[in-house]
């Protein structure tokens, strides 16, 4: 949305895609929430939505406008918490859905936050570094009134990273008149970031992947893994699986799919992507001409770690993996969920599988408040314990109620949120 003549996305017909997925999942859960069901209606409504115009001066002197959002879905259990995404397909309905998933996720792993998410509808690859900085700072100033260490704490998501968080923290601090390191997490270590946060989401995916494999009697050593998305989440998860002796047989990113039956060299692939911007052209691998073939590849564990709605009715029947680990948020449509379930494929849902990131974000926030920083071993062992316990609790509930892991995770999350709401007296 860089042209000043383009129609803002919130004036176009609603894209219920991602948001609709969320609503359907909530609806499926309601029968299991018993007396809490009457409040689920309130879970469908975000608490606060801010849509902002983000104008910047381009390097050539022209002015470009971008549309930005921050949605606070729920704050019953604490301040809003969730990442910021820069992507050309970001829309209000997508950010609403992502914020709602954050509410469920934060409650499912029991970190003391509500749920929030933000984004800018922009392809950051079209911006220079200086333009990216101006856009990030302007966006932060525009949402300044609703964020803060005790209000709503942004973090990285797709196409945002430590540098973006540093600019956000600096802009917020300048507006406040004092340094407020706790306003964002996922910061550089030199600015109060936490050891282990960069790897935390991928590490959490790996930890719950090992737990799920154990339930299925699958050895990680020698297991065949396929990963879609080779950024922060997919890249780290792939590296940890490979280091544990698994064979990462396929990696797909926005530009290409690379395959190697005997296992890709993940360290070399990461170095290649750092240099070339994508996996396209990586030597020592076959490249698939048709990206859709990725879904039918022979593997044991499939890790979607890119965007929403990637596993859908067109490809769910082709999936050969026995375990799907949702590194991304919302990668599976409800229709595909049913297909995978009917085929006996074990799906570990996003709200558990990728919760390692926000868990270490919580550690970072705590460390910032106390100005006392933990060792990487302390962080990783606490993260591993929380992820294992969350997985075990959801697994036990799924067995008890005879429901999927997704439904069980939603029951755990919704119950905690709605109980907090009831105790506070905020129910309608
Ligand atoms: N960064 C974090 O801490 C967390 C991220 N997530 C979720 O994980 C997913 C990935 O996020 P990050 O790794 O942080 O983003 P990233 O920006 O670091 O990487 C995204 C990756 O997805 C690939 N990709 C983009 N479009 C694609 C397409 N159409 N097909 C295949 N690959 C495509 C990109 O090439 C890149 O490799 C998102 O759903 C995000 O919401 C979830 C929890 C925390
Ligand atoms: O670390 C955080 O605060 C949130 C990460 C995030 O956006 C997510 O879990 O989807």
TrEMBL record:
SMART domains: ELFV_dehydrog
Record-linked CDD domains: NAD_bind_1_Glu_DH
Keyword Oxidoreductase included in the entry's annotation: yes
Molecular function, one GO term: oxidoreductase activity
Record domain Glutamate/phenylalanine/leucine/valine/L-tryptophan dehydrogenase C-terminal: where: 194-425
PANTHER family per UniProt: GLUTAMATE DEHYDROGENASE, GLUTAMATE DEHYDROGENASE 1, MITOCHONDRIAL
Protein family per UniProt: Belongs to the Glu/Leu/Phe/Val dehydrogenases family.
Protein name: Glutamate dehydrogenase
Source species of the chain: Herminiimonas glaciei
């Amino acid at each position: 949305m860089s042209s000043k003549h383009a129609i803002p996305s919130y004036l176009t017909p609603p894209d219920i895609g991602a948001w609709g997925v969320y609503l359907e999942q909530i609806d499926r859960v309601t029968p299991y929430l018993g007396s809490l069901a009457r409040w689920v209606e309130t879970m469908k409504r975000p608490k606060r939505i801010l849509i902002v115009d983000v104008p910047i001066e381009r390097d050539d002197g022209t002015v470009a406008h971008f549309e930005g959002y921050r949605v606070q879905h729920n704050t019953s259990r604490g301040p809003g918490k969730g990442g910021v995404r820069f992507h050309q397909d970001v829309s209000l309905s997508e950010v609403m859905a992502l914020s709602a998933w954050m509410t469920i996720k934060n409650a499912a792993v029991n970190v003391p936050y509500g749920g929030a998410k933000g984004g800018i509808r922009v392809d950051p690859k079209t911006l220079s570094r200086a333009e990216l900085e101006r856009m990030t700072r302007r966006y932060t100033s525009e949402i300044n009134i609703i964020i803060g260490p005790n209000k709503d704490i942004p973090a990285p998501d797709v196409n945002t990273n430590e540098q973006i968080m540093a600019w956000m923290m600096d802009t917020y601090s300048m507006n406040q008149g004092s340094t407020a390191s706790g306003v964002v997490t996922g910061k550089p270590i030199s600015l109060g970031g936490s050891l282990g946060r960069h790897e935390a989401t991928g590490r959490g995916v790996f930890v719950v992947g090992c737990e799920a494999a154990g339930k299925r009697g699958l050895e990680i050593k020698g297991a065949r893994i396929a990963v879609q998305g080779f950024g922060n989440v997919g890249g780290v998860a792939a590296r940890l699986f490979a280091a544990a002796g698994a064979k990462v047989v396929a990696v797909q990113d926005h530009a290409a799919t690379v395959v190697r039956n005997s296992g890709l060299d993940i360290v070399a692939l990461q170095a290649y992507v750092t240099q070339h911007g994508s996996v396209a052209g990586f030597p020592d691998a076959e490249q698939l001409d048709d990206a859709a073939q990725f879904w039918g590849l022979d593997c044991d564990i499939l890790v979607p770690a890119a965007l929403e709605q990637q596993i859908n009715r067109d490809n769910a029947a082709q999936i050969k993996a026995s375990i799907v680990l949702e590194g991304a948020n919302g990668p599976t449509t409800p229709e595909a969920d049913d297909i995978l379930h009917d085929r006996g494929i074990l799906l570990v849902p996003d709200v558990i599988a990728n919760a390692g990131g926000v868990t270490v974000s919580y550690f970072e926030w705590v460390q910032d408040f106390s100005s006392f920083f933990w060792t990487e071993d302390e962080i990783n062992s606490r993260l591993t314990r929380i992820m294992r316990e969350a997985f075990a609790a959801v697994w036990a509930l799924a067995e008890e109620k005879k429901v999927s892991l997704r439904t069980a995770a939603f029951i755990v999350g919704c119950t905690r949120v709605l109980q907090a709401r009831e105790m506070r007296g905020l129910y309608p």
